[in-house]
Amino acid sequence: MFSPTIILTIAGSDCSGGAGIQADIKTISALKGYAASVVTAVTAQNTMGVQAVYPVPADIVRAQTESVMDDLQPAAVKIGMVHNAEIVHAIAECMQKYRPGFIVYDPVMVSTSGRRLMTEDTVRVIQEELFPLCSLITPNLSEASLLLSHSITDVEEMKRAAYLLASRYHCAVLVKGGHLSGDEMCDVLYDNGNISLFGQQKVESHNLHGTGCTLSSAIATFVANHYGLEEAVRRAKAYISKAIVHGKDHRIGHGNGPLCHFFSDD
């Protein structure tokens, strides 16, 4: 019998379908994985912004995770939005209990506009309890700056940041440079003493909602299919670039629209 590769996403729900659990499930499915999901929050949001957030009680987050882990035994776990310290505790305890082979955490700590999305206590618990359990964390420039308490604005600073975060939390780190100034973007991966750069031209598009969710889910899916981390990131970057290109002319909503997760290369 055929057993598809199972990836679990633990994240918030985006009712408009562009980010969060919905983007994760689309990404995993597009890359031929089987997506299981644990909802950490129900949000009211659309392409214009977030209108409301209702965190799921921590004991329900724990119960969902245990249900999936006990039965499906996913090869990789992607973690996204965690709204408060109680949810972080529940997820960390489950990860310690089940020890999945690969855990990637996309730390959604700062909004695109620069607004902090977590209390200082929640950030502290994430740093103390969740980061050390991760195989990979994927902060963007704002989030890496928050974690290191200083601004990061260029590739050399990104290299230093990736090294410092990896040394502090004993995991691989991918610092995402999508908001670097200029026409070029570059992501920096630090993994076990090695630095890899993933540079490319920026694609002009107003449809970039859910890029972080999509990238981390794609990495999890490729790692679950036995690619090494550097190659998994490379393939995930190629996938998300195509998703941006294929979605840049779509009109979904009146603001920052989603990527096109399902496309043909023909």
Helix content: 25-40%
The global form is: globular
Question: Using only CA atoms, what is the Rg?
Answer: 17 Å
Q: What structural class should be given to the helix and strand makeup?
A: alpha/beta
- What is the straight-line distance between the termini? 31 Å
Order of helices and strands: EHEEHEHEHEHHEEEHH
Order of the strands making up the biggest sheet: 3-2-1-4-5-6-7-8-9
Number of helices: 8
**Strand composition percent:** 15-25%
Write down how many β-strands occur, each being a DSSP E stretch of 2 or more residues.
Answer: 9
Given as residue ranges, the uncertain stretches (5+ residues, pLDDT < 50) are: none
Largest sheet: 9 strands, mixed
| Average pLDDT | 94
Explain this structure.
- The chain has 8 helices and 9 strands.
- Helix 3 links the parallel strand 4 and strand 5.
- Helix content is 40%, strand content 22%.
- It has 266 residues and is of the alpha/beta class.
- The protein has a 9-stranded mixed beta sheet, sandwiched between helices.
- It has helices spanning 20-30, 58-71, 85-98, 120-130, 141-148, 155-169, 211-224, 229-247, and strands at residues 6-14, 34-46, 49-55, 76-79, 103-105, 136-137, 172-175, 184-191, 194-201.
Short structural description:
The protein is 40% helix and 22% strand.
Keyword list:
266 residues; alpha/beta; nine-stranded mixed beta sheet; 22% strand
Topology overview:
Elements: E1 6-14, H1 20-30, E2 34-46, E3 49-55, H2 58-71, E4 76-79, H3 85-98, E5 103-105, H4 120-130, E6 136-137, H5 141-148, H6 155-169, E7 172-175, E8 184-191, E9 194-201, H7 211-224, H8 229-247
Parallel strand pairs: 1-2, 1-4, 4-5, 5-6, 6-7
Antiparallel strand pairs: 2-3, 7-8, 8-9
Helix pairs in contact: 1-7, 2-3, 3-4, 5-6, 7-8
